[in-house]
Design brief:
Elements lengths: L2 H39 L6 E3 L11 E5 L5 E5 L16 E2 L4 E9 L2 E2 L3 E5 L6
Antiparallel strand pairs: 1-2, 2-4, 3-5, 5-6, 5-7
């Protein structure tokens, strides 16, 4: 075998190994890439706080928070940022003056952005 034919044989074998590796790695990388895109696309929507910040002609005595089905809602009533250590929403919140409600929803390990509703004159004076 000449030096040139030996080099060509090694190059062909290396090329075959490279093809085999790319044939195996490519689907795995595609799957991982698809999984990351899917996870990013399924972000949790922020919860809705009712009543929203605003001026009302009738007094507002309670606030409710809603989110996507299956989401856990964490909230605060002192204006601080909610976290997984905050109370979990389970029923209407009694409004007092002044009050700033902040809430976030968590679904499948993905947290939403924080929703805020401010109440400066919520109840009858």
């Amino acid at each position: 075998m000449s030096l040139i034919s030996g080099f060509l044989n090694r190059s062909r074998n290396a090329s075959r190994r490279s093809s085999a590796v790319s044939w195996l790695v490519s689907p795995v990388l595609s799957l991982l890439y698809g999984f990351v895109l899917c996870a990013a696309a399924q972000a949790t929507n922020p919860p809705a706080i009712t009543p929203a910040t605003g001026v009302y002609s009738t007094y507002q005595s309670t606030a409710t928070i809603t989110a996507e089905p299956g989401a856990t809602i964490f909230y605060t009533v002192d204006g601080s940022q909610p976290s997984h250590g905050s109370p979990v929403y389970s029923s209407a919140i009694t409004l007092t003056n002044p009050m700033t409600i902040k809430a976030m929803a968590s679904l499948s390990g993905v947290d939403s952005t924080v929703a805020t509703a401010c109440c400066h004159t919520c109840v009858k004076q």
